Amino acid sequence: MRRCAASALLLRDARANAIAAKMHDRHLLLVLLLRCAAGVLEGVRPQQAPKPKTLHLKTPKTPSVLAPMPDTRPSWFKAKAPGGPGSRYAELRKSIDAGKLNTVCDEAACPNAGECWEGGTATIMLLGEACTRGCRFCNVKTDTAPPPPSADEPLEAALAVASWGVDYIVLTSVDRDDLSDGGAGHFAKTVGLLKELQPSILVECLVSDFAGAYEPCTTLATCGLDVYAHNVETVERLQSRVRDPRANYEQSLMQLRRAKAASVDAPSPILTKTSLMLGLGETRDELRRTMADLRSNGVDVVTFGQYLRPTEKHLSVVEYVHPDVFDELREEAVSEFGFEYCASGPMVRSSYKAGEFYLQNLLEKKRREPEVDVEFG
Predict the structure, then answer these.
(1) Which residues are within 8 A (CB) of 336 and not within 5 positions of it... i.e. 6 or more apart?
(2) For residues 276 and 287, is the Cβ–Cβ distance under 8 A?
(3) Nearest C-alpha neighbor of 276 from the set 377, 137, 102, 155
(4) Are 70 and 317 in contact (CB under 8 A)?
(5) pLDDT, tens only, 296-351
(6) What gap in Å lies between CA 341 and CA 355, rounded to an integer?
(7) Span 140-186, pLDDT tens digits
(8) Order of strands across the sheet with 301-306?
(9) Three-state SS for 202?
(10) 28: burial class by Cβ within 10 Å (0-12, 13-18, 19+)?
(11) Please, where are the H alpha helices in the chain?
């Protein structure tokens, strides 16, 4: 009997201890929760739920000409009106018209001309106004046999730009597949003359893929420019729908990689830059893969902007991408993929001035750093 009574007592004590342990654990848990709620637990703070990513196309789509457009253009598409008489815009407008220079701002009907020109940035177009290619998003004139470029244009362009007093100039051009070097020598001569006339100016050259040729790419990368820009335009899947058949994703990546590699022989460090249009049916996953590809090919700067159909003869817009998506892409590009800089917004274009003040500081910093061998992932 005593043994049975002792066993009963031990069992009762064990149950009591278990209940007490559970109550103790619940007490500790309650205290922990209360402390977290008050934010006073040492070394621990309540974690906020991550902000959900803004919706973007999850199912890949393909753009086409004459396809139905989204119902209305959103309210966030607003651009600053050009300045009035006496403004910097008016002065540049007068000088450009007098010199008969072509600007991509005019040819592509860019909505940011007023803002860029007022901020001291201009984009002029060399090699004439007719392109030998016919991309389905572009409103520039096309011609299979355009007139030969003017031999005087490099000097005339350099003199005009030097007279404007701008800090940052973007030189771009139509594609000239009819020229043996794609116009690279014309670009290089313009850059050289401009640097002689105004050594402090920063020059970005936004160029074609030179049909994949090696020499034009490296000639330009080592001519003294500061930013070598070439646009991949869209994600890999949509290349054949958006760009001329002579352009392709791998060819563009190859030329950007070559430019960065060749820059070790340039007079000073250069940045490589590219741009993508959004709203053509791409998905977030495709954009992330593109950013990874760009970084693995040495691209330093990327920009994202909304595609807007110039005429009914061009590709229809698939989606008007929300500004929050552009903000998220900018954050991902810099913090996750390691781009030196990303300009991203519905109204951003490849030559947009938003990042150029930053690029000036970045280029000056790179010039102070010791030279290192260029390697890619």
Answers:
(1) none
(2) yes
(3) 137
(4) yes
(5) 999 999 999 999 888 889 989 999 999 999 999 999 999 999 999 999 999 887 76
(6) 8
(7) 888 889 999 999 999 999 998 898 878 888 999 999 999 999 999 99
(8) 102-103, 121-126, 168-173, 202-206, 227-229, 271-278, 301-306, 341-344
(9) strand
(10) exposed
(11) 2-38, 88-99, 104-107, 113-118, 153-164, 184-197, 214-221, 239-242, 249-262, 284-296, 323-331, 356-368
Whether 216 and 254 have beta carbons less than 8 Å apart is answered as no
pTM metric for this prediction? 0.78
Q: Which residues contact 48 (CB under 8 A, 6 or more apart)?
A: none
Rounded to the nearest angstrom, the gap between the alpha carbon of residue 296 and the centroid of all alpha carbons in its chain is 15
Tokens of 49: 């739920």
Structure-token match 């958006």, residue found: 242
**Amino acid making up residue 353:** K
Contact status, residue 272 vs residue 259, Cβ threshold 8 Å: yes
Single-letter code of the amino acid located at 28? L
**Which amino acid is it at 232?**
V
Quick one: CA torsion of 127, 170, 281, 256, rounded to 10 degrees? 80
Integer Cα distance of 325 and 35 in angstroms: 36
Closest CA to 232 of 256, 212, 214: 256
3-state secondary structure of 31: helix
Phi, psi of 261 (to 5 degrees): -65, -40
Whether residue 346 contacts residue 77, with contact meaning beta carbons closer than 8 Å, is answered with yes
Q: Give the torsion sign (CA, 110, 69, 303, 119).
A: positive
Kindly state the helix (H) or strand (E) to which residue 170 belongs, with its residue range: strand 168-173
